[in-house]
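Operator note (shift B, R.M.): manual run for TetR family transcriptional regulator requested after the automated queue skipped it. Running by hand, logging everything below so the morning shift can see what happened. Input copied straight from the record, untouched. If output looks odd, do not overwrite the archive copy; leave it for review.
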Amino acid sequence: MPKSSPSRPTAQPARQRRKEARPQELLAAALEFFVEKGFAATRAEEVAARAGVSKGTLYLYYPSKEELFKAVVRESLAVHIAEGHEVVAQHRGSVADLLRFVMTEWWRRVGQGAAGGICKIMIAEARNFPELAQFYVDEVIAPSHRLLGSVLQRGMDSGEFRPLPLAETVQVLIAPVLQQTLFLSAFGACHMPTPWPEPMAVLEVQMDLMLEGLLQRPPSG
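Run finished. Output pasted below as returned.
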């Protein structure tokens, strides 16, 4: 009996591939509009048009503008925080190196990109949309504080870092990076010359200063 030829995977129809890609296209278009115009001024039909679909199609995936915004936040910010927790859990070695890596990666993945504009949106519009503000706290702020807190606590427990108040130290870590993110989202979009240095250079100085303050020093003889 002749051997049957191995079956080949059936190519996915173009329409099916388009349908599966559609949520990502909608989220990408929504991120652009939210960062450019803010939450309140963004209209669903604009997002749909940029993604090449009808407004009705958008609502099949995301039933309201609020749900669309939440999906953008999860895709652009929350997923990176979750990945950060995995990196921390798997890391073995210097906690100072881990902290530097976590801070630098956050800037590369979020702070210097379009997703960093979400921070500016929430600061500007949280008061008018308290339900979204609470969502942002639960999905972004609290998990990011837990992430940095876990790194600091590991350093303190191992003796690599000196004991410091955890919540306050997390705030000191976050504040300069958040300031850089807000500056880039606000003034960077204007393409104007500014007296500020490159954000990555600022982050490197911040980490040097922070680690000088965090590292446990042997008692002087």
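Quick read of the result: The radius of gyration is 22 Å. Residues 1-7, 11-17 have pLDDT under 50 and may be disordered.
Leaving this for review. - R.M.
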